[in-house]
């Protein structure tokens, strides 16, 4: 099977908010900032962790584990239950920022969205990566949030982000063919900007 290389510049961006629910709780309550916290479905031993903070992740606490297991890793972890109204307010806030760059914004979940800049990129200086970094700065300034923008010329190529590391995404010059060797994962492994041609 052979795939033609896509030489078009990236025009589509996928944005994922880091530790979304936990970070929102930390911004809402300054006393929680810098502390290991988790948002869990229930504040009980069998409650499922739905969002560990960045600080909790440093102790190995992950999404999907039980509160019991999280406390085995870090006994003093703070457990909160979800506040959907608060999370939706932030979701609407970040979608509003995205629509400053394109009317074509597709939320994929409460903490992820895809922005199609095909028809609006020419209105801005720089590349899609530049716009991604500008969005990141606006989030830090306006919401004190950390985000991961990933850009592609075709949305399905975003699968490469699972292997993006700290670099610029898929190996250069391989284009879509690089996807044949990469598993598609729900979340990035830690890269800040991922691009593919």
Structural summary, described in words:
There is one protein chain. 25% of the residues lie in helices and 17% in strands. The chain is of the alpha+beta class and 197 residues long. It has two domains: 12-18 and 84-181, 2-Layer Sandwich (Alpha-Beta Plaits); 20-80, 3-Layer(aba) Sandwich (MutS, DNA mismatch repair protein, domain I). The strands form two sheets. It has a four-stranded antiparallel sheet, covered by helices on one side. Strand 2 (37-40) and strand 3 form a beta hairpin. It is elongated, with a radius of gyration of 18 Å. Residues 153-197 have low confidence and may be disordered.
Entry summary:
The protein has 197 residues and is of the alpha+beta class. The chain has helices at 20-28, 54-57, 67-73, 84-98, 128-142; strands spanning 12-17, 37-40, 49-52, 78-80, 105-109, 112-116, 147-152. Strand 5 and strand 6 (112-116) form a beta hairpin.
Structure keywords:
Alpha-Beta Plaits; MutS, DNA mismatch repair protein, domain I; single chain; 7 strands; 197 residues; alpha+beta
Order of helices and strands: EHEEHHEHEEHE
Overall structural class, as computed from helix and strand content, comes to: alpha+beta
Q: What is the CATH domain class of the largest domain? A: Alpha Beta
What's the number of extended β-strand segments? Answer: 7
How far apart the termini lie comes to: 19 Å
Beta content comes to 15-25%
Number of DSSP helices? 5
The CATH topology of the largest domain is Alpha-Beta Plaits
Q: Could you give a short account of the major beta sheet?
A: 4 strands, antiparallel
Bulk shape: elongated
CATH architecture of the largest domain: 2-Layer Sandwich
Q: In angstroms, what is the radius of gyration? A: 18 Å
* Uncertain stretches: 153-197
Task: Tell me the name of the CATH homologous superfamily of the largest domain.
Answer: Reverse transcriptase/Diguanylate cyclase domain
Kindly state the mean pLDDT as a whole number?
77
Helix coverage percent: 25-40%
Number of domains: 2
């Amino acid at each position: 099977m052979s795939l033609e290389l896509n030489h078009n510049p990236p025009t589509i961006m996928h944005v994922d908010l880091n530790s979304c629910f936990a970070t929102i709780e930390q911004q809402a309550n300054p006393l929680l900032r810098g502390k290991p916290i988790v948002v869990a479905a229930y504040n009980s031993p069998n409650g499922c962790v739905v969002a560990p903070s960045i600080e909790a992740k440093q102790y190995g606490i992950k999404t999907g584990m039980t509160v019991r297991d999280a406390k085995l890793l870090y006994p003093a972890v703070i457990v909160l239950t979800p506040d959907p109204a608060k999370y939706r307010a932030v979701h609407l806030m970040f979608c509003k920022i995205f629509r400053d760059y394109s009317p074509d914004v597709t939320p994929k979940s409460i903490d992820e969205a895809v922005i199609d800049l095909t028809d609006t990129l020419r209105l801005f200086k720089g590349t899609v990566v530049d716009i991604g970094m500008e969005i990141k700065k606006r989030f830090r300034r306006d919401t004190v949030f950390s985000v991961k923008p990933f850009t592609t010329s075709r949305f399905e190529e975003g699968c490469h982000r699972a292997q993006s590391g700290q670099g610029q995404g898929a190996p250069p010059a391989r284009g879509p063919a690089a996807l044949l060797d990469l598993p598609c994962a729900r979340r990035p492994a830690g890269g800040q900007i991922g691009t593919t041609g």
